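BUG: 3D viewer hangs when loading the predicted structure for this chain

Environment: internal workstation, default settings.
Expected: structure renders.
Actual: progress bar stalls at 90%.

Input used:
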Amino acid sequence: MAFDGITISCIQKELARALEGGRISKIAQPEPDELLITIKNNREQYRLLLSASASLPLVYLTTQNKQGPMQAPNFCMLLRKHIGSGKILSVTQPGLERILVFTVEHRNELGDLCTKKLIAEFMGKHSNLIFCDSEDQILDSIKHVSLHMSSVREVLPGRPYFIPHTQEKLDPLTISREDFFQVLLTKPLPAARAVYTTLTGFSPLMAEELCFRAGLDGGLPTDALDEPARLHLYHTFCLLMEDIKNGDFAPGIFYRGPEPVEYAAFPLKQFSDFSRTPFDSISRLLETYYADKNRITRIRQKSADLRKIVSTALERNGKKLILQEKQMKDTEKKDKYRIYGELLNTYGYSLSPEDKFLDTVNYYTGEPVRVPLDTQLSPAENAKKYFDRYGKLKRTADALQTQIAETKADIAHLESISTALDIARDEEDLSQIREELSDCGYVRRHVQNGARKKKTVFHPLHYISSDGFDMYVGKNNYQNEELTFKFASGGDWWFHAKGMPGSHVIVKSGGAELPDATFEEAGRLAAYYSRGKQAPKVEIDYTLKKNIRKPAGAKPGFVIYHTNYSLMASPDIKDIKETC
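Structure tokens produced before the viewer hung:
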């Protein structure tokens, strides 16, 4: 996830094609560190988003509009005054710096043609949008930087603009063969780190990719590379630079299941295990990627309270189970007391009143045993005392056996809810989980008098197998029950990860015999949507739906079956087609 110089080079090519020659029709500043500029060109309207956010600096073309404040900030007013109807002459990038320069032509108060530059710097916490004249004198910036804030460069009106070269990196577009070998490959660093600390525009991700394409381990020190490896790394670098110079980009997002994990302007060969969605526009890629990321982040934030409730309940039940099992262990001596009572009833006639022990043989095992006695009680009363102890411990053991089973069922249920929270994709999924927690007493239900319970709509995940069979995945326990007992018919196939929380997977057979590939793909879905998602292999149970039963009083999603098959599946679903 690197918004590096290579990604910006891809954006520059796209912006140059779309915006050069266009006229600015509107400038808005919806956020303190963000501009939204509307440009009309070739009978098309484009919205250019420029964000100098310290946490997420971005630039891309968007179709979304943002409402600006009622009173425009000073920086926005200055831009409107000078370039409000200006013509974009060029969009350039100096080297592979994380900088874009928008050169705009406009007419001044006297009607003469002038040029101004809007310079966007995407440098993490140092990101900025700087407005300069044709002589590179700063007119204003969206963030003012004084000498008290930075000893490297002031960004204030009237100061000269220059690119700060604090790390003395080399331009990869112009680097010579000698510098590559004598500067980059002589650094006492791992190869990948030597690349991104020497060359402008290279992020750690792209440095690792360069090493991977060259068949090298990016963590290998540069002095450990032999001559053929160095030559291969240089030639691989030259090929990558040729693609950048020629604009041969192929943007794409890499997904692990439904979650986006990375994006890049080129196919990343190091991520060949992930599914990749190509884009014909880097702007659309960025908008999609960060929208998906924001959606997942938002769902995780919204589920934080539910996760806390589940984790607290799990912790409480875990402590309860430990205590119950300890009490159960204490009841293991109950049979000893029963045997003591039986031995006293059998051999107590031989005891004298002053005896403190009965030494005899346990007729169950043939081993000698000593039975302690209370001298103030008769042998019969001692026997009754031991039988009473036995009865009390037996009743305790019977009660604990039921309680332990209930506690284990509660823990398994809560773990299944925890897994469902990991699977949840939208607020509807969270509302179903909240409803389940409420029905089970973990969350207090707030219902107004006379209000009717809203009917829940179930939307399970839907996949298509390579052989064309429909495969459905429940995202929580209520969806699992709906799928298995209301949606599926007796001849459909049911899949579930063995011995762990996970989703029910239903394959609609339509009365046909399923091919082996469909069984394997359904098993992979059951493995991926389970607690074993991170394991290399997961054991999957599968059977016909008609063999599935739900015990009376069981927790939501809990089923039993006595006839099943098993298979080992990897939790990898990148090549399984999901429908909307």
